[in-house]
Design goal:
single chain; 455 residues; alpha/beta; Rossmann fold; UDP-N-acetylmuramoyl-L-alanine:D-glutamate ligase; Protein-Tyrosine Phosphatase, Chain A; six-stranded mixed beta sheet; 15 helices; peptidoglycan synthesis; ATP binding
Length: 455
């Protein structure tokens, strides 16, 4: 059958497309912009891509259309689907119906760390010989693809997003997954464009909790009051709590930067782990993945042995290079907590080395200014900040600059950002790009400019 996917270059819908292709379907799709890395992955799979939401892109023989949650009524392609009476569905419902049914599903939810934790869990299960399938909202470096079916009947790891499903289904995407094991990694207010407050998101998380069977497991961060409130609404599944020096699964940091740690569970204490990731948040991501794997029978000792060979997903403190003495990272930052924890881990690793942050407030909540008061405090470990405030940002950046106490400046374009960074950076510095968008490829343009400067 021919399947057309609207919004195909988004990380989730691109993963759905890859799975549909692996199932033998003839897949094509449209997006407002056809851009890497997902466009490269899709073309390599033989999937046809169209730029723009033009009704004519949907072929006459199309049997079904999957509609991404970024599309609304009034979109020309959506209106064509409805007027033509074409069968349509959401990506999340299609995934649950066509791929997840009958398989042990491990769903990773939370405001932060979903992509890294999902990648860790898929890697652990792979190293345990279980040949898992997965769909992850990024590209795990250990696999090189964002989605695969895995072996028939094998466990399936899915990054479980609380964002709404589609214009016709305003429930969170994760209610379609029916997991056997659900990781509740953390919970803060986000997605201010669709949720009025944290309580509304907590209700969505409880909808997920309601779908986990009694024979399954909830793996829950032991230090999150919002998750305690979620479980207080009703819980019918055994709960395994995890945390730093607390919970059923405990981790002890043996290095300040998170590069080494030791895990305890019940009466077992395991050998120290040394790995390449940094930060307390990543240690907790690893602990959650180990606990989730244990819930389906994977020995924690085996899981922990897999961690030194784990490589962080693309754009999760991805090292782009060290050129002219300047070390450059790219990070998918979308919330002040994520910014603060990432920079804390980096600071513990680099010591007194100068850290320069290029920050773009691009997530819906950041663009709306919901987290504006928390931005400057989240940048406490940065020595210099270049803040990209594109025209049309609906809030005043002056309080952020004031909170940075002379450590920051605001620019209005990616080109101005590039010029500012090149003027600022000197050998020995670490530069971190933080945005959940493409940043107009300024990260790689900066690295190239450094190479040219180095001569």
């Amino acid at each position: 059958m021919t399947l057309h996917i609207l919004g195909i270059c988004g990380t989730f819908m691109a993963g759905v497309a890859a799975l549909a292709r692996e199932l033998g379907m003839d897949v094509e799709g449209s997006d407002a912009g056809v851009y890497p890395p997902m466009s490269d992955q899709l073309r390599a799979l033989g999937i046809r891509l169209h730029e723009g939401y033009v009704p004519g892109h949907i072929a006459a023989g199309t049997r079904q259309v999957l509609i991404g949650n970024a599309l609304s009524r009034g979109n020309p392609a959506v209106e064509h689907v409805l007027d033509a009476g074409l069968p349509y569905d959401s990506g999340a419902h299609w995934l649950g119906d066509r791929v997840l049914t009958g398989r042990p599903v491990l769903a990773v939810a939370g405001t932060h760390g979903k992509t890294t934790t999902s990648s860790l869990l898929a890697w652990i299960l792979d190293q345990a010989g279980l040949q898992p399938g997965f769909l992850i909202g990024g590209v795990p470096e250990n696999f090189g693809v964002s989605a695969r079916l895995g072996a028939p009947g094998a466990p399936f790891v899915v990054e479980a997003d609380e964002y709404d499903t589609a214009f016709f289904d305003k429930r969170a995407k994760f209610v379609h997954y029916r997991p056997l094991v659900a990781v509740l990694n953390n919970l803060e207010f986000d997605h201010a464009d669709i949720y009025p407050d944290l309580a509304a998101i907590e209700r969505q998380f409880h909808h997920l909790v309601r779908t986990v069977p009694g024979r399954g497991r909830l793996v829950v961060n032991a230090a999150e009051p919002a998750l305690d409130r979620v479980l207080a609404q009703g819980c019918w599944t055994p709960v395994a709590r995890f945390g730093i020096d607390r919970g059923d699964w405990q981790v002890q940091m043996t290095s300040d930067d998170g590069a080494a740690f030791r895990v305890r569970h019940e009466d077992r204490e395991f050998d120290e782990v040394r790995w390449s990731l940094l930060g307390r948040h990543n240690v907790l991501n690893a602990l959650a993945a180990v606990a989730a794997a244990a819930a389906i029978g994977v020995d924690p000792a085996l899981s922990l042995r897999a961690l030194p060979d784990f490589r962080a997903p693309k754009r999760r403190m991805e090292h782009l290079g060290t050129v002219d003495g300047v070390t450059v990272f790219d990070d998918f930052a979308h919330h002040p907590t994520a910014i603060a924890t990432t920079l804390a881990g980096l600071r513990a690793s680099v010591g007194n080395t100068r850290v320069i942050v290029a920050l773009e407030p691009r997530s819906n909540s950041m663009r709306l200014g919901v987290h504006a008061a928390q931005i400057a405090p989240s940048l406490a470990d940065a020595d210099r900040v270049v803040f990209l405030a594109r025209p049309g940002l609906p809030w005043d950046t002056a309080p952020v600059l004031a909170g940075l106490s002379g450590r920051g400046r605001v620019v209005s374009s990616a080109d101005a950002l590039l010029s500012s960074l090149l003027a600022e950076a000197r050998p020995g510095d670490t530069v971190v790009f933080m945005s959940n968008g493409g940043f107009d490829a300024v990260q790689r343009r900066f690295v190239q400019a450094l190479r040219e400067r180095d001569g």
